[in-house]
C-alpha cells in the first residue's frame, strides 16, 4: 500500500489515439481513466493523426475529472504532474503536453516530461512492485518493437535493439487487413489463431541469421510473405485457412520476439525480463515468453493486458519513480519530441 507521505502524481498520455489520465501514489494505482478514438480511425485502417489530436482535445478535461472522481481526490490533492513528451505523433503529444503544462502552472506543481517507452516499463511496478535492476525490457506495440537494458529506470535506460521497419503491432494490423479481420489487428488475429495450427505454414523469421543484428527486429518481410501466401491461394481458387494463417503468423512473431529477449538476458547476465506494450496482451506471446523464461531461469514480469496498452497510469507511474528518486522537474518550456530517444527517460 502507498504511504501517505508519497507524492500523488497525475499522469497524461496522448502519444497516439488514447487519451489516458492516471493517478498514482508510490507504487499504488488510484485511477486509470481512458478515452479512445479508435472507432473513428477504423474505416481508414490506421490512426489518422489529425483525428487523434482533435479527439484528445475533446476528451482531455472530462477524462481528468473521471480519474479524480475514481480516485476520490480533487485536483488540489495532486503533488506532481507527468506527461508523455515523446515519442509519438507530434500533434497528439502537443495536446497532452499543453494540458499538463496548464495544470502544472495553475496548481504551481512540478512537471515531468517523460519517455513513452520508459513509462511502459514503469507501469509494471504498479502490479509487481519495485523493478529489479538491472532488467531487460521487451516492448512491443503498434509503433515500437524494442529491447532495452534498464540499469536504473529513473536515470538510465539503454537501447539494445529495435525494429528496423514495421513494428510487430503494425504487422498485426496489416496481416489482419489482408485476412479481412477488423482493425486493430492484434485481438482478432489472437482470437482466430486459437482455432488454427501454428505449424501449418512456415513463415519466415526476420533478422535471425548468424550475421544479423542480434537484438534488432524486422517484420516487413514476414508481413509480405503472409500477403503473398494468401494471394497465391486466392489465385489458385483455393480457400484461405484464416485460422491457420493467423496462428502461423502469430507464432513467427512470438518466436522471434521471445528468442531475442531471452538471448539479451543471457548475454547481459540479467535474470529479470519485463514484457510490455500493446502486443504484450497477445496470448501466444505471453505463453511462449513464460515457457522460454522458465527454461532459462529468468523471472518474467508482465503487466495485466489493460496496463500493457497506452494509458495514463504508466505515465503517472514513471512520474512517481522520478519524484521518489529526486530527479529535477522539466523546464516550463517543455515541448513534444516525436522521435525522443529511449536514452532520455525524462526531459
UniProtKB/TrEMBL annotation:
Binds 1 Fe(2+) ion per subunit. SUPFAM superfamilies: Actin-like ATPase domain. InterPro entries: ATPase_NBD, Gcp-like_dom, KAE1/TsaD, TsaD. Substrate binds at residues 139-143, 173, 186, 190, 282. Fe cation binds at residues 116, 120, 310. Belongs to the KAE1 / TsaD family. This is tRNA N6-adenosine threonylcarbamoyltransferase. The gene is tsaD.
Amino acid at each position: 500500500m502507498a504511504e501517505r507521505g508519497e507524492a500523488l502524481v497525475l499522469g497524461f498520455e496522448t502519444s497516439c489515439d488514447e487519451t489516458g489520465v492516471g493517478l498514482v501514489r508510490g507504487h499504488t494505482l488510484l485511477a486509470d481513466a481512458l478515452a479512445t478514438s479508435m472507432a473513428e480511425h477504423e474505416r481508414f485502417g490506421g490512426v489518422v493523426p489529425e483525428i487523434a489530436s482533435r479527439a484528445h482535445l475533446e476528451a482531455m478535461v472530462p477524462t481528468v475529472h473521471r480519474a479524480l472522481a475514481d480516485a476520490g481526490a480533487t485536483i488540489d490533492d495532486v503533488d506532481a504532474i507527468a506527461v508523455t513528451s515523446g515519442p509519438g505523433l507530434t500533434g497528439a503529444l502537443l495536446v497532452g503536453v499543453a494540458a499538463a503544462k496548464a495544470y502544472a502552472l495553475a496548481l504551481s506543481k512540478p512537471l515531468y516530461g517523460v519517455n513513452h517507452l520508459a513509462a511502459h516499463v514503469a507501469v509494471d511496478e504498479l502490479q509487481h512492485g519495485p523493478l529489479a535492476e538491472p532488467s531487460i525490457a521487451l516492448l512491443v506495440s503498434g509503433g515500437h518493437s524494442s529491447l532495452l537494458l534498464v540499469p536504473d529506470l529513473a536515470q538510465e535506460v539503454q537501447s539494445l535493439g529495435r525494429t528496423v521497419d514495421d513494428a510487430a503491432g503494425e504487422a498485426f494490423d496489416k496481416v489482419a487487413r489482408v485476412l479481412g479481420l477488423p482493425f486493430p489487428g492484434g485481438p482478432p488475429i489472437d482470437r482466430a489463431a486459437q482455432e488454427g495450427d501454428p505449424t501449418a505454414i512456415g513463415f519466415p523469421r526476420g533478422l535471425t541469421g548468424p550475421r544479423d543484428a542480434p537484438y534488432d527486429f524486422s517484420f516487413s518481410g514476414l508481413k509480405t510473405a503472409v500477403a503473398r501466401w494468401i494471394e497465391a491461394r486466392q489465385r489458385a481458387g483455393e480457400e484461405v485457412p484464416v485460422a491457420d494463417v493467423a496462428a502461423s503468423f502469430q507464432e513467427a512473431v512470438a518466436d522471434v520476439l521471445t528468442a531475442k529477449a531471452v538471448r539479451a538476458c543471457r548475454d547481459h547476465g540479467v535474470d529479470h525480463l519485463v514484457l510490455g506494450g500493446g502486443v504484450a496482451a497477445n496470448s501466444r506471446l505471453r505463453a511462449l515468453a513464460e515457457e522460454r523464461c522458465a527454461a532459462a531461469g529468468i523471472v518474467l514480469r508482465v503487466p495485466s493486458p489493460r496496463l500493457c496498452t497506452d494509458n495514463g497510469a504508466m505515465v503517472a507511474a514513471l512520474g512517481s519513480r522520478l519524484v521518489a528518486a529526486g530527479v529535477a522537474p522539466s523546464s516550463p518550456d517543455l515541448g513534444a519530441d516525436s522521435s525522443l530517444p529511449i536514452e532520455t527517460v525524462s526531459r
